[in-house]
């Protein structure tokens, strides 16, 4: 009166499932658990304002580096403004900027808002290619009316 | 003229791939050696034609023929000859041509050298490889031809992205693609095995060398890419779980699982369905990688020349090839015979566990990589998944594999004694524990992750050496016998041990580097000093310097330790006028296994008005092991490959026996 199936094939299948199920369940559990605070949302300044992003939450802030806004402090810090057409946010960052960081060009800053409303960036995303723009940024720029077509980055690069 | 010749050769290669697929399929259908032979000839012809097209493109690059659009976009007369040649695969079109070159080369080698294969299996496999050739060469001809001419050619080219003008990046794509595309042969053989309803020990033995070769090349390719990003991008890191990195890592994981499950199929005839499945998965991941990298659907810090329209085409190719493969699997897999039985504690069971964990870890990486796409499609939110996700899912799952790893080679097939294996591993376990405790107590108090990593690394190295020592000393051998026994060990055993030791070396390096890295960023004027990890760095001067196609600011930094001069480092900032692009050139002061890594930042004005520079310094302890480990693993793969060649006669004899039975079954 065993609960185990009688045929050898079915037993093998049961054994396979019995071993595989906990491992896959553990993997799925780990994945969902780890996903919780590893996912960062992408906002342009006006989207961040609309969504009411709380201070301290890690997000990616994308937009154009406002022309004339970049100031380097002698102690290695940098202050600039990320803007879309409707809104803008001041960003502070300490560390080396990617080689392709320029005024008037797209940028994605990873970090969090301080309670003062200043965005503290921990990472400025480096791009290999000056023609490159992240898909999210293109979408956000189009949504806020800032997008000037594909010629934009080429024109800004020269 | 040469470019037109190349275009013609490419179209011819497309036609020959079609012929290869058609003739080989017909040869298999009619069981005609003449037709199959013609198919094999077409495979060789397709390779020769793609090679000719590749040579034509290389010629256009070397002679700076800017009437070819691809050359105008990616080359420049000032560029050194070496980078003119490597510029061939620096662009999307060129790299797809490299992909086709590798694909047809593998097809030709399989067609001409695979004499041990039975005729039916071989014809089917060559036909499948031909179909893959049709898809990819067709894509290159119709959607991304690198030899297209411009109507009014420019006088000067746009030059290659300066970040790509680097000797390691020059080698990275050929290795990576040879590895990616090597999986195509495994895919073709898997699909052929399903068509022939024949997945047995002999089949696993035919697949093994291809999988080993592709895996070794992919290992070196990923390592080179990681090394390049480490010392060219100037960020001080070597892996960031970026979608593009994951795209190359997933086929590697699938191939690693495949190598282990194919061993079970080869030695015991079990797991045949799973091995075939992995064979299909490995190349599917390769194609997924090409799609993810080239379509730009995922935001990556590594931006390539992207084109959504081509992305859709690549997705279609992926869907057609993988869809056909998995449909065939769903249809035929239930008919595969189950192999030998084994006890819950046996080498088979250990390898099954290995595969389960690697598969789960691969699935976690795949999920994290595609999650932004899923999220975008379901809720419309733009999100990205950061490295913490991967560290928290991948690391524990792989840690479980690593804990079990040293046991597996000590367990016999079929039925084993776990306690016996554990008793033999006590020395390795003790050493590992000691290493972990030493890290916690001495070097980095309270750093559990690096302690676990170091313990795991020592455990792998020690456990693998234990297995070798056991094999040599077993039964109390005399001193003279030890050497002869060592020499008699099969190459496969050496290969496996080298690969496992390499993995341990890598884990040790990764654990030490990740936890022990020290960073500092300081603004320095000439004459100023800063300290990082006990080294005094003095910025002596910054002077202009002219390179072949760039102008640079070169800093001289002298590095002192305890008052003694250790080395001098010259980090640079280079400006490439052809691209209007500035890059940093990292200077690395190698200290044994560790690196002192220096990056020169942008000049800025100090309060006094004199120029100052931001100098970033990283102390990366034991970072050299991160590159040495994968090299050892790839070496292990090559050693194991040389073993296979010695036993070529075995599958040939085994191949003839089951053939009549198959005929009756049809």
Give a written overview of the molecule.
The complex is a heterodimer of chains A (158) and B (666). Chain A is 32% helix and 27% strand. With 158 residues, chain A is α+β, with helices and mostly antiparallel strands. Chain A folds into two domains: 1-39; 41-157, Nucleic acid-binding proteins (OB fold (Dihydrolipoamide Acetyltransferase, E2P)), CATH 2.40.50. A five-stranded mixed barrel of chain A has the order 2-4-5-7-6. With 666 residues, chain B is an alpha+beta fold. Chain B has four domains: 1-165, no CATH class; 174-395, no CATH class; 425-516, no CATH class; 522-620, no CATH class. Chain B is 64% helix and 12% strand. Chain B has helices at residues 2-30, 33-62, 69-74, 81-86, 92-113, 119-143, 167-195, 201-232, 243-268, 272-295, 308-332, 347-378, 387-404, 418-424, 426-443, 448-473, 479-488, 491-516, 624-646, 649-656, 659-665, and strands spanning 383-385, 518-524, 529-532, 535-546, 551-561, 564-569, 572-576, 581-585, 587-591, 594-605, 611-620. In chain B, a hairpin with a 2-residue loop joins strand 9 (587-591) and strand 10. Chain B is globular. The interface between A and B is large, with 48 and 62 residues. Strand 1 of chain A pairs antiparallel with strand 1 of chain B.
């Amino acid at each position: 009166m065993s609960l185990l199936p009688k045929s050898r094939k079915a037993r093998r299948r049961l054994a396979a499932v019995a071993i595989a199920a906990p491992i896959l369940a553990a993997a799925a559990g780990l994945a969902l658990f780890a996903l919780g605070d590893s996912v960062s949302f992408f906002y342009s300044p006006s989207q961040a304002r609309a969504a009411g992003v709380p201070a301290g939450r890690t997000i990616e802030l994308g937009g154009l580096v406002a022309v004339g806004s970049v100031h380097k402090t002698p102690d290695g810090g940098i202050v600039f403004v990320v803007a879309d057409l409707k809104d803008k946010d001041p960003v502070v960052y300490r560390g080396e900027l990617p080689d392709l960081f320029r005024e008037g060009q797209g940028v994605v800053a990873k970090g969090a808002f301080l309670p003062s409303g200043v965005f503290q960036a921990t990472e400025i995303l480096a791009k290999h290619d000056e023609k490159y723009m992240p898909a999210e940024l293109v979408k956000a720029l189009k949504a806020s009316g800032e997008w000037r077509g594909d010629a934009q980055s080429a024109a800004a690069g020269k | 003229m040469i470019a037109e010749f190349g275009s013609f050769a490419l179209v011819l290669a497309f036609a020959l791939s079609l012929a290869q697929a058609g003739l080989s399929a017909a040869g298999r259908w009619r069981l005609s050696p003449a037709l199959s032979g013609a198919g094999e000839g077409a495979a060789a012809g397709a390779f020769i034609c793609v090679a000719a097209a590749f040579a034509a493109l290389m010629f256009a690059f070397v002679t700076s023929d800017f009437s070819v659009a691809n050359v105008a976009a990616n080359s420049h007369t000032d560029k050194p000859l070496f980078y003119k040649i490597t510029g061939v695969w620096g662009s999307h079109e060129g790299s797809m041509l490299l992909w086709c070159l590798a694909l047809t080369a593998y097809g030709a080698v399989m067609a001409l050298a695979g004499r041990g294969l039975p005729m039916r299996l071989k014809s089917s496999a060559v036909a499948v490889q031909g179909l893959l050739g049709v898809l990819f060469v067709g894509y290159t001809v119709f959607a991304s031809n690198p030899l297209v001419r411009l109507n009014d050619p420019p006088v000067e080219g746009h030059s290659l992205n300066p970040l790509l003008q680097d000797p390691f990046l020059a080698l990275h794509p050929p290795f990576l693609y040879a590895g990616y595309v090597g999986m195509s042969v495994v895919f073709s053989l898997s699909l052929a095995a399903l068509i022939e309803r024949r997945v047995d020990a002999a089949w696993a033995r035919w697949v093994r060398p291809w999988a080993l070769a592709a895996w070794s090349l992919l290992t070196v390719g990923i390592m080179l890419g990681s090394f390049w990003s480490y010392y060219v991008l100037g960020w001080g890191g070597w892996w960031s779980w970026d979608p593009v990195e994951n795209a190359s890592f997933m086929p590697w994981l699938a191939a690693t699982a495949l190598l282990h499950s194919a061993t079970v199929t080869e030695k015991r005839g079990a797991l045949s369905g799973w091995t075939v499945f992995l064979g299909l998965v490995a190349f599917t991941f390769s194609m997924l990688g090409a799609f993810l990298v080239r379509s730009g659907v995922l935001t990556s810090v590594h931006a390539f020349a992207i084109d959504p329209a081509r992305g859709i085409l690549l997705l279609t190719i992926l869907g057609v090839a993988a869809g056909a493969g998995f449909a065939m699997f769903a249809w035929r897999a239930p008919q595969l015979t189950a192999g030998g039985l084994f006890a819950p504690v046996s080498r088979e069971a250990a390898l099954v566990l290995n595969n389960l964990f690697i598969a789960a870890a691969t699935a976690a990486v795949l999920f994290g990589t595609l999650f932004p796409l899923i999220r975008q499609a379901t809720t419309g939110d733009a999100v990205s998944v950061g490295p913490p996700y991967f560290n928290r899912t991948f690391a524990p799952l792989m840690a479980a594999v690593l804990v079990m790893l040293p046991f597996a080679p000590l367990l016999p097939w079929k039925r084993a004694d776990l306690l016996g294996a554990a008793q033999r591993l006590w020395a390795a376990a003790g050493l590992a524990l000691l290493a972990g405790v030493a890290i916690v107590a001495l070097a980095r108090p309270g750093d559990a992750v690096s302690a676990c990593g170091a313990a795991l690394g020592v455990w792998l190295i020690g456990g693998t050496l234990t297995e070798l020592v056991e094999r040599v000393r077993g039964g109390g051998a005399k001193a003279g016998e030890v050497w002869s026994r060592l020499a008699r060990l099969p190459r496969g055993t050496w290969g496996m041990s080298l690969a496992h030791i390499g993995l341990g070396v890598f884990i040790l390096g990764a654990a030490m580097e990740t936890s022990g890295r020290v960073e500092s960023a300081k603004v320095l004027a000439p004459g100023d000093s800063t300290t990082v990890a006990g080294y005094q760095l003095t910025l002596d001067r910054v002077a202009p310097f002219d390179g072949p196609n760039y102008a640079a600011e070169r800093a001289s930094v002298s590095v002192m330790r305890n008052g003694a001069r250790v080395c001098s480092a010259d980090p640079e900032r280079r400006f490439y006028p052809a691209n209007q692009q500035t890059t940093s050139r990292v200077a690395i002061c190698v200290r044994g296994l560790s690196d002192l890594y220096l990056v020169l930042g942008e000049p800025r004005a100090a309060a006094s008005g004199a120029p100052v520079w931001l100098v970033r310094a990283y102390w990366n302890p034991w970072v050299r092991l991160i590159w040495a480990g994968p090299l050892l693993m790839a070496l292990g793969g090559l050693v194991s490959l040389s073993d296979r060649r010695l036993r070529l006669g075995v599958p040939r004899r085994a191949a003839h026996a089951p053939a009549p039975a198959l005929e009756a079954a049809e």
